[in-house]
Amino acid sequence: MAGLKEFNAVDDSPYNILIVDDNQSNLFTLHSLLKRVKNIHVIEADSGEKALKIVIEQPVDLILMDVQMPEMDGFETAKHLKMTSRTREIPIVFITAVFKAEEFIKHGYEVGAIDYLTKPIDDNLLISRLSLYTNIIGRKRAEESLLHAHQMLEKRVRERTRELTIAYNQLKEVDKLKSTFLSTMSNELHNPLNAIIGFASMLRRGMEGELTDTQLDRVTRIEAAGQQLLELITEVFEISMLESGSVKAKAETFSMIEVINEAVAKVKPDAERKGIRVCVKKNGDTSIRSDREWLIKCLLNYLSNAVKYSTGGTITVCASEDGENIQVDVMDEGIGIKKEDQERVFLAFERLDTPLSAVAGGTGLGLYLTRLIIHNLLKGEHALESTSGKGSRFSFTIPKTS
């Protein structure tokens, strides 16, 4: 993932150890000993002044410094180091040939030293102490790196939250504009379409027997096309309202069987023309308190699809009580749906690629709209079981009391 390197808490860069001694022989000896410790980079200074210049120019993790030096001794050099925030935290280990505990306590710790070594230096003791200090420095590096990572992450989270908040507010504004646009356009389109459909219907009925077959066919086509366009506009508007949450369910008490019979009555003529038998069954008390209008729309979508994609057989609609819920199943003996297509049919503008699709028509919005009604409005669940060539069972389960 991009950016993870910024949060890597492992810092394996060498430890910069500054050795300060006015005696070149001592510098050489110390340098040689320090080479035996892994991951060490040694920097040399033969005076306090040069040591101060080095720590200003480059990072230093630990200073091994001789106490007795001409011009500026170790104590004075340490005092200067403690005067600035950049250098005051560098640990100092003094090296002295003449050690007096009282003097070191009085001056060494006072100027910020953490330890001392006496000359001649014990090789093993030096290496042991140095390993200890580098381990401590390593842990401090890790803590600082983790702190930095945490701060960077917090900063990124704040920035991302701010960006998402802006994006969310923009989406809400766009969604509001879309809903307003669709609402306005729906009203503006409904009126002329209703006029076209109405006048075409009046023309067909009022001039029955006077129109030629060609004229009658054209008027009928105008009426049918207008009705299809009106249904599409209505579906798009309803989907927009359901997606935005601007529509609320109206609670009224009724029998689910009554609603089913009402929906069946509307599709029965088309079913009978195709030789399809429609039957209704119930199991238990099907009284419910919900939104009747939206339920009829769901049932019509299920039933219309069952009729469209069947060439005969029986369509069975069953309402059954299950504790606090009612389940409605619409079962047909039609062409069925392949397993890989069963999720897709509930998406917007998706239609099955079958020989019946071209004849059946439709926009591919019906099942998507039904899913929105069941989930977003009626707080229920939908399901589909189907076997290609053997039929389908579309169902939904909703609470008995909304």
Summarize the structure.
This protein has about 400 residues and is of the alpha/beta class. The chain has helices at about 25-35, 50-55, 75-80, 100-110, 125-205, 215-245, 255-275, 290-310, 355-360, 365-375; strands spanning about 15-20, 40-45, 60-65, 90-95, 115-120, 250-255, 275-285, 285-290, 315-320, 325-330, 380-385, 390-400.
Task: Name a few traits of the molecule.
single chain, 402 residues, alpha/beta, Rossmann fold, Heat Shock Protein 90, five-stranded parallel beta sheet, five-stranded mixed beta sheet, 51% helix, rod-shaped, transferase, phosphoprotein, 2C_system_His_kinase, kinase, HATPase_dom
Describe it for me?
- It is a single chain.
- 51% of the residues lie in helices and 19% in strands.
- It has 402 residues and is an alpha/beta fold.
- Among the domains are: 107 residues, Response regulator (Rossmann fold), CATH 3.40.50.2300; 148 residues, Histidine kinase-like ATPase, C-terminal domain (Heat Shock Protein 90), CATH 3.30.565.
- It is built from 10 helices and 12 strands.
- It starts with 14 loop residues before the first strand and ends with a strand.
- The strands form 3 sheets. A 5-stranded parallel sheet has the order 2-1-3-4-5. Strands 7-9-10-12-11 form a 5-stranded mixed sheet, with helices on one face.
